[in-house]
Amino acid sequence: MTKQEVIDLLEDSKHSKVKVAIVDIDGVLRGKFMHINKFIAALKTGFGFCDVVFGWDMADESYDNAKVTGWHTGYPDAPARIDVATF
Predict the structure, then answer these.
(1) What percent of the chain has pLDDT over 70?
(2) Does residue 86 fall inside a structural domain?
(3) How many domains does the chain have?
(4) What predicted TM-score, i.e. pTM, was given to this entire model?
(5) SS in 3 state form for 11-75?
């Protein structure tokens, strides 16, 4: 599907939210719900996703030796983008 086909499908949908997930460094899906309008905007321009996914283990405990993110960085949002796969 193209991005426009995904947008068209969402706009014709009865649903108001989309679940977006990122795989953390342990292979666990970490996700959040986005309103369809925000998701459509994110398809076009990207969005922010908390980089805590690179600083927590599977039990949501902070890695004590993390350099990329942690309490020392305040776990800010990292830029993310949504790629549409074509089959």
Answers:
(1) 98
(2) no
(3) 1
(4) 0.77
(5) HCCCCCEEEEEEECCCCCEEEEEEEHHHHHHHHHHCEEEEHHHHCECCCCCECCCCCCCCCCCCC
